[in-house]
Design a protein that fits this description.
alpha/beta
């Protein structure tokens, strides 16, 4: 059964001026339920992740200051959110959503989180709407507690997964692959194991050609036992922060490429949603919904 992390806290613990793009966290499960792609049995509400698992990835000093609302004004500005107890609690629940999705993927082949993809969080700081790094926390959980020996991170958000790259820069068991707009946030890039920077306005044909060139070769070379897929839909031409030129169908073909390859290689995959900031919320929801539709089609 497809298991999907979702909680009301995803949508209801954000500052008022961030509610529009983040409305997807409420509208997406509603759409999937309405159209019959999922039932309520597919959804699970994660509990907050225990601090011991956060500390497997993040510095103790940073976690202490974050959880006690003691970040400096400069640190708070870099996250993009005003710091609050509710916001930290939201993040901790999201972290466990991806951990649990990864565990469900070990059992069923795929697990998903309607939130997550917080790839701008470093070991010791947050940036870009990310306080903690769910993909890194979940990957370390599998490496430390579940006997997984090699992880591949496939980050296809429009922005480089700089925090994930930094966290795993000296971890040979995790290979980080980021395909992103080269001239976009973050302006200082970290070094992923493989970075594929794209020109502004990159269209479906060019994007899919590059993905289909790199990903099969990576699977052969890396030989991962598990895949984390950051499936941000800010690659759309309609995205306010993206700068690429992809259509909703092109984004769907991107997801199909990744998920079909995981299925063909019998690789468990955990999917986090990542970014999406189109002016019309319907574009965001439809593009994200395609990822869940494909998961049901390919696995169940």
């Amino acid at each position: 059964m497809l298991k999907i992390a979702w909680s009301e806290i995803f949508a209801h613990s954000l500052p008022e001026n961030h509610r529009f793009p983040m409305a997807k966290y409420e509208l997406l499960p509603e759409q999937l339920l309405y159209e019959g792609t999922i039932t309520s049995d597919n959804l699970f509400a994660p509990e907050p992740l225990p601090a011991q698992f956060i500390l497997d990835t993040h510095d103790a000093d940073y976690w202490h200051r974050l959880s006690h609302l003691q970040l400096s004004a400069s640190e708070v500005r870099k996250t993009g959110f005003p710091l609050s107890e509710q916001l930290v609690q939201r993040e901790v629940v999201i972290m466990n959503g991806t951990v649990q999705a990864a565990l469900f993927a070990l059992e069923y082949g795929i697990g998903m989180n309607i939130a997550g993809g917080t790839h701008h969080a470093f070991t010791n700081r947050g940036e870009g709407f990310c306080l903690l790094n769910d993909i890194a926390i979940a990957a370390n959980h599998l490496l430390r507690y579940k006997g997984i020996g090699k992880v591949l991170v496939v980050d296809l958000d429009v922005h480089q997964g700089n925090g994930t790259a930094q966290i795993f820069e000296n971890e040979p068991r995790v290979f980080t692959f980021s395909m992103h707009c080269g001239h976009n946030y973050p302006f200082h890039k970290e070094n992923s194991d493989l970075d594929v920077p794209l020109a502004e306005g990159t269209d479906d044909k060019t994007y899919l050609h590059l993905l289909r060139h790199h990903l099969p070769r990576l699977l052969d070379a890396v030989q991962p036992e598990f895949v984390f897929f950051q499936s941000g839909v800010d690659v759309l031409a309609t995205d306010k922060l993206g700068k690429l030129g992809m259509s909703i169908d092109g984004c769907k073909q991107r997801d199909r490429t990744v998920l079909e390859l995981c299925r063909q290689h019998n690789l468990p995959v955990a999917v986090s949603m990542g970014g999406g900031y189109s002016r019309q919320i319907a574009h965001i929801v439809e593009a994200h919904a395609n990822t869940f539709r494909l998961a049901q089609q390919l696995w169940f």
